[in-house]
Amino acid sequence: MNYILFDGPARDQFLPFTFTRPVAEMRIGILTIREKWEKFLNTTT
């Protein structure tokens, strides 16, 4: 099964951080949002 993470309209609420990277690459603690989803879904990109 494939999962797709995308930046929705709420992306603008994270400016200026999202000027340089996707929302999924932002760090929340030690992991990025993408890494947290990978761990939760037990998969890798």
TrEMBL record:
InterPro entries to which the protein is assigned, alphabetical: Bifunctiontional_GlmU_bac-type (IPR023917)
Protein known as: Glucose-1-phosphate thymidylyltransferase
Organism: Salinimicrobium catena
